[in-house]
Amino acid sequence: MPFEEPAVEPESTVTTCYRHTKVECHVRCTRCDRYICPDCMREAAVGHHCPECVREGARSVRQARTAFGGRITTVPAVTYALLALNVLAYVAELVRPEIVDRFGMLGAGLAGPDGGHYVWQAVHPPGFSAEGVVGGEWYRLLTGAFLHLPPTEGTFGILHIVMNMAVLWNLGRQMEAQLGPLRFAALYLLSALGGSVLVLLLAPDSLTVGASGALFGLGAAYYVVSRRLGAHLNQVNRFMAGLLLWLLISAGLTSWQGHLGGLLAGLAVTAAYAYAPRARRSWVQAGACAGLLALLVALAVWKAAALA
């Protein structure tokens, strides 16, 4: 009887995804040659890549930056967030008007036993208590920059927040695109703080509210950035002349101290952004912001101690 060789089964040709082992696939990653299923395919210049190769490639590719070292973004998320915070704070004011007295920028004042608010006196009668920064309410240095005049009060009423938000919408998007989200946020907050600190130094008994100090800082940033990038100076100079003119006019209508403090802080921050040496740009920019913050805090502490 002739010898019969056992039948040999053909080798399986089924291939599966390296990540999803139960999914049959026939496409390989053009970088690592592993099989990938449709869920794992990532479009590449040639063929497809797997998720790991895509992440590895992203780590090895240098990310594009703005002219001032910031992260490039197509959505001005910080500007939108600031707009939302201002509007929400305004709605809260309409519901609870006492928020203005509780969180507005005030250097030194007295809260009376009758619930009223009085001019500051270092030596005050029994039953009166200190309020404002001198009373330990340091948060007012920033919270006041997110509040605005009630609809029927002050020179502008509801136009106060409308005008400020229009400026924030226009300037904020431009500056965030040029500086990047993180640098833009630092500029805005330091400008707001700079305005509050100058109010504390020069008019500590005045209750002030509004984003104007921060917006004057953005105006200063627009000027510095435009000059650094070589923009058409006629338009830039007209803008700056209008900003300074409004600073003079506002001296008789609103808190010029807040406007001037924001303008000076914005100039200082943006000058550091624009003229920092490229080799160590991030360190110089961060150091300048930290230095300005330390100076503003030191001035506020000194003034609070002097008032007390």
Q: What does this entry look like structurally?
A:
This protein is mainly alpha-helical and 308 residues long. It folds into two domains: 12-53, no CATH class; 77-307, Rhomboid-like (Rhomboid-like fold, Up-down Bundle), CATH 1.20.1540.10. The protein contains ten helices and seven strands. The strands form three sheets. It has a three-stranded antiparallel sheet, with no helix packed on it. Helix 5 runs parallel beside helix 7 (212-229), helix 6 (181-202) crosses helix 7 and helix 6 (181-202) packs parallel to helix 10 (281-307). It starts with 26 loop residues before the first strand and ends with a helix. The mean pLDDT is 87. GO terms for molecular function: serine-type endopeptidase activity. Its main location: membrane. It is found in: Membrane.
What is the topological layout?
Blueprint: E1 27-28, E2 35-36, E3 42-43, E4 48-49, H1 51-60, H2 77-95, H3 98-103, E5 109-111, E6 117-119, E7 129-131, H4 140-143, H5 159-179, H6 181-202, H7 212-229, H8 233-250, H9 256-275, H10 281-307
Antiparallel strand pairs: 1-2, 3-4, 5-6, 5-7
Helix pairs in contact: 2-5, 5-6, 5-7, 6-7, 6-9, 6-10, 7-8, 7-9, 9-10
Main location: membrane
GO biological process, one term: proteolysis
Protein name: Rhomboid family intramembrane serine protease
